[in-house]
Automatic annotation (TrEMBL):
Highest taxon of source: Eukaryota
UniProt entry keywords in alphabetical sequence: GTP-binding, Nucleotide-binding
Gene3D superfamilies linked to this entry: 3.10.20.30, 6.10.140.1070, P-loop containing nucleotide triphosphate hydrolases
GO MF annotation terms: GTP binding; GTPase activity
PANTHER family registered for this protein in UniProt: DEVELOPMENTALLY-REGULATED GTP-BINDING PROTEIN 2
Keyword Nucleotide-binding assigned: yes
Span of domain OBG-type G: 82-307
Tagged with keyword DNA damage: no
GO terms, biological process: positive regulation of cellular response to amino acid starvation
Matches recorded under InterPro entries: Beta-grasp_dom_sf (IPR012675), DRG (IPR045001), G_OBG (IPR031167), GTP-bd (IPR006073), GTP-binding_2 (IPR031662), GTP1-OBG_CS (IPR006074), P-loop_NTPase (IPR027417), Small_GTP-bd (IPR005225)
Name the UniProt record assigns to this protein: Developmentally regulated GTP-binding protein
Domain TGS: 307-384
C-alpha cells in the first residue's frame, strides 16, 4: 500500500470516528500517523529520480522544465523585499490581478489552467519592492500531488503573505478546500506558533510540564505521540492550552505560520448585500479585477500584513537618503541593516548612530551596537573600522 492510500485510509477512519472524550486518545494517534505519512509524501526519503520529471519553485528563482530561461530572466529583474503568493483554483482572476498590480503580462483567458508556470511581478509601494507570484491554479487533492499541485502549494511556504483568491459568485466550499490543501503541506494560515518548548535529550526519559490547564489534549495522548515518533528522552514544556494537532506541529518542526488575506474577486456579479457580508468576514477583502475596484486598498492591506520597517541611511556630514529606504521585516536589528546594504559592513562594524523612534534620546541620535532593534522610519549612520 502506497503513502497516498495510507493517508486516504486514515482520513476515512477519522471521518467515521465520532469526536468525544472517549475517542480523543484514538484520534490523537491517527493524527500523529497522518502527519507522519504526509511528511513522507512531501519529503521523500529517496533523493534519486529521473531528472526533469517535475517542476520546482524556489524563492528568488523559479525552475520550470518548459520555461526555465524565461522565468530565470524575469525573476532576475523581480527580486523584492518581500514575497506574496497568489493561491486559488483555476479561472478566479489571479493572472488578471497580477497584470493590474504589477503591469506584468500574465496570460488571462476565460478557460481553466491558462497559467501553467509561476509568473512573478513586482509591486512598487512606499519605496519597497514586493514580489507577487502568480502560481498555477490548483485542484482538489493538490497536496497529494494531483495536477503538480504539491509543488505549487508548497511554494507558498516561501511567501511572507498568502493571498487566497476566491470567486465571489461561488460557495464557501472553495475556501475550505484551499485551506485543507495548504494545511496538508504544513502551512498554518493566520496562526502563531504554539508556545511549547521541546528539547531532545540522550537520556533521562520524558520530562513533562505545563503552566496552564490542558482542555484540548492530555498528557497520556502527548506521551503516546512522542512514543510514536520514537522520542523517549526529551523535555516538554507547554505554556498555552494547545490541541493535539498543534503539539504534532511542534514535533515536526517545519510548519510555516503565514498571514493570509482572502481576496474575493468578481464582486460586480453579486448583490450589495452579499458584498457587505463577505467584506465583514475576518481577513477578507472584496475586489473586482475587471472593473479595478478596491485594488489600492488590497495593496495597502498587503503592506500592513507584511509589517515591514523602512530605514533610511545617512552618510557622515550628509542629509539622509529619503529616496532609497532599506526595507526590513519588523524586529530587524542594525546587523540586519548592515547585511542588507553590504556583507562587509557587519564584520568591520564599530558603532552606529540612530535617529528616530528607536533612539532613547529622540530627536537626538543614540550610539548603538549591532543588536539594536530598529523601528519604522529610523535614520541610521554606520561607522566601520
Amino acid at each position: 500500500m502506497g503513502v497516498v492510500e495510507k493517508i486516504k485510509e486514515i482520513e476515512e477512519e477519522m471521518a467515521r470516528t465520532q469526536k468525544n472524550k472517549a475517542t480523543e486518545y484514538h484520534l490523537g494517534l491517527l493524527k500523529a500517523k497522518l502527519a507522519r505519512y504526509r511528511q513522507q509524501l512531501l519529503e521523500p526519503t529517496t533523493k534519486s529520480g529521473p531528472a526533469g520529471t517535475d517542476s520546482t519553485f524556489r524563492k528568488g528563482r523559479i525552475l520550470c522544465r518548459r520555461s526555465l530561461l524565461h522565468c530565470s530572466n524575469v525573476l532576475a529583474n523581480c527580486s523584492g523585499d518581500a514575497r506574496v503568493a497568489l493561491i486559488g483554483f483555476p479561472s478566479v482572476g489571479k493572472s488578471t490581478l497580477l497584470s493590474k498590480l504589477t503591469h506584468t503580462q500574465s496570460e488571462a483567458a476565460a478557460y481553466e489552467f491558462t497559467t501553467l508556470t509561476a509568473i512573478p511581478g513586482v509591486i512598487e509601494y512606499k519605496g519597497a519592492r514586493i514580489q507577487l507570484l502568480d502560481l498555477p491554479g490548483i485542484v482538489e487533492g493538490a497536496s497529494q500531488g494531483r495536477g503538480r499541485g504539491r509543488q505549487v502549494v508548497s511554494t507558498a511556504k516561501t511567501a511572507d503573505v498568502i493571498l487566497i483568491m476566491l470567486d465571489a459568485t461561488k460557495s464557501d466550499e472553495q475556501r475550505r478546500l484551499l485551506e485543507h490543501e495548504l494545511d496538508a503541506v504544513g502551512i498554518r494560515l493566520n496562526k502563531s506558533k504554539p508556545d511549547v518548548v521541546f528539547k531532545k535529550r540522550t537520556t533521562g526519559g520524558i520530562t513533562f510540564n505545563t503552566t496552564v490547564k490542558l482542555t484540548k489534549t492530555d498528557e497520556k495522548t502527548i506521551r503516546t505521540i512522542l512514543a510514536g515518533y520514537k522520542l523517549h528522552n526529551c523535555d516538554v514544556m507547554i505554556r498555552e492550552d494547545i490541541t493535539t494537532d498543534e503539539f504534532i506541529d511542534v514535533l515536526i518542526g517545519n510548519r510555516k505560520y503565514v498571514p493570509c488575506i482572502y481576496v474575493y474577486n468578481k464582486i460586480d456579479s453579486i448583490s450589495l448585500e452579499q458584498v457587505d457580508k463577505i467584506a465583514r468576514t475576518p481577513q477578507s477583502l472584496v475586489i473586482s479585477c475587471e472593473m479595478g475596484l478596491n485594488l489600492d486598498y488590497l495593496v495597502s492591506r498587503i503592506w500592513e500584513e507584511l509589517a515591514m520597517v523602512k530605514v533610511y541611511t545617512k552618510k557622515r556630514g550628509a542629509h539622509p537618503d529619503l529616496d532609497d529606504p532599506v526595507c526590513l521585516r519588523k524586529g530587524s536589528t542594525i546587523e540586519t541593516v548592515c547585511n542588507t546594504i553590504h556583507r562587509s559592513l557587519a564584520p568591520n562594524f564599530r558603532y552606529a548612530l540612530v535617529w528616530g523612534k528607536s533612539s532613547k534620546f529622540s530627536p537626538h541620535a543614540q550610539k548603538v551596537s549591532l543588536a539594536h532593534a530598529v523601528q519604522d522610519e529610523d535614520v541610521v549612520s554606520i561607522f566601520t573600522k
